[in-house]
Specification:
85 residues, mainly alpha, 3 helices, 0% strand, flat
């Protein structure tokens, strides 16, 4: 149980760092990467809550949210490069 609290504290620290990078990021690419980190850190907190409570439905939510996050990261990268390969 202590490991869950330590993991949650580290994830919250990454949430704060990502939020700071979104606020003061020098350009759009830094903000995009920070938003991606923020999204996946929230998913990690949801997964930790599911492990702590023993709820099995949480993992379906984490799987779907991860797929959506991956697709949004790809589409944002495509939009930032304006379709160039």
């Amino acid at each position: 149980m202590i490991a869950l609290w330590i993991a949650a504290a580290l994830i919250v620290a990454s949430l704060l760092a990502a939020t700071w990078r979104i606020v003061v990021g020098p350009d759009d690419t830094n903000r995009t990467v920070a938003a991606d980190l923020l999204f996946f850190a929230v998913i990690a907190l949801i997964a930790l809550a599911g492990v702590g409570s023993g709820a099995t439905g949480t993992f379906d939510l984490v799987l779907v949210a991860s797929l959506i996050g991956f697709l949004s990261a790809v589409s944002l990268a495509r939009a930032l490069t304006r379709g160039r390969r």
